[in-house]
Amino acid sequence: MMDLNTIECASSSSSSDGLEDEDITSHHFSSSTKPTTTTHNNNNNININPGLPPATSVHELLECPVCTNSMYPPIHQCHNGHTLCSTCKTQVQNRCPTCRQELGNIRCLALEKVAESLELPCRYFSLGCPEIFPYYSKLKHEALCNFRPYNCPYAGSECSVTGDIPFLVTHLRDDHKVDMHTGCTFNHRYVKSNPREVENATWMLTVFHCFGQYFCLHFEAFQLGMAPVYMAFLRFMGDEADARNYSYSLEVGANGRKLTWEGTPRSIRDSHRKVRDSHDGLIIQRNMALFFSGGDRKELKLRVTGKIWKEQQNPDGGVCIPNLCS
């Protein structure tokens, strides 16, 4: 892993299109942050709002005593009638976790039939989902529910924190020490000594707040095949449908050359690795990066500028026109 303490990054953001070098402020990054794993507004059990009918004893019977998740066919039972889900059955050495009797291969067909008649709220009802589903349709919906919590988008560690966007913004700022900026333009300078030592490294550089939304700017170095590359890309802190309302551009260059990238930010529903491996961003080959740095190959110096804008629908022509923040 690249030693992040050897990285110096300078950053600025403003609400105008002008990007001046004297506006750049320095900050440093460390890979030593190890946040405590927590969850926010997330529950493996089905939450019933007081405005809905209370959970029934039938629903309680459909809760696996081991993992506490709702059971789906095949539902297994022991000779004494204790039930558990098929996933947990493989983990209890064929012994009932309630009475310790041998499980065998008995299906609880009656309970499976009862489940077919149930209609239950989405497990994310407490987070705002109003939908009611037949028992066997609910699980499929919950896997794609727009109200389900988001995973932490920080890419520098295996962080399992989940929550809504305001919670994750606070978590990124306080636990991962991510820099927060307001504005839709940015200007970053990346400096690294020993540019020939390019190992897999990844970190989130900045969170931007504009248009009432949050965006994550990533910059990293990794091996693409046999060639070391640098990559910058933007992710949207929200769902994919909302991410399509925005566009962004990135530019890097020097010595009369420049590379530009323009695209749509990816939702943080897509993992960082998925976005990186799709190459959906500005990719800079090391030789070109060194050329931009002055060509002496002693130090990497990359200046990446960019802007975010919102696509607005033109009521007359029906085409999208950019709306830059002012």
What would you note in describing this structure?
The protein is an alpha+beta fold and 326 residues long. It is built from eight helices and 20 strands. Strands 1, 2, 11, 15, 16, 19 and 20 form a seven-stranded antiparallel β-sheet that branches. A hairpin with a 6-residue loop joins strand 19 (299-313) and strand 20. It is elongated, with a radius of gyration of 25 Å. Residues 1-56 and 317-321 have low confidence and may be disordered.
Task: Briefly summarize what is shown.
With 326 residues, the protein is α+β, with helices and mostly antiparallel strands. 17% of the residues lie in helices and 36% in strands. The chain has eight helices and 20 strands.
Q: Give helix and strand order, one letter per element, not per position.
A: EEHEEHEHEEHEEHEEEEEHEEEHEHEE
**Spatial shape:** elongated
Overall average pLDDT? 77
Gap between N and C termini: 40 Å
Which regions contain 5 or more consecutive residues with pLDDT less than 50? 1-56, 317-321
| Helix count, DSSP H or I runs of 4 or more residues | 8
Number of strands: 20
Give the helices and strands, then pairings.
Elements (H helix, E strand, L loop, with lengths): L6 E8 L10 E4 L28 H5 L13 E3 L5 E3 H4 L16 E2 L1 H8 L2 E3 L10 E3 H10 L5 E2 L10 E2 L1 H10 L4 E4 L2 E9 L7 E10 L2 E12 L2 E10 L3 H4 L2 E9 L2 E7 L2 E2 L4 H6 L4 E4 H7 L6 E15 L6 E5 L2
Parallel strand pairs: 10-12, 14-17
Antiparallel strand pairs: 1-2, 1-11, 3-4, 3-5, 6-7, 8-9, 11-19, 12-13, 13-14, 14-18, 15-16, 15-19, 19-20
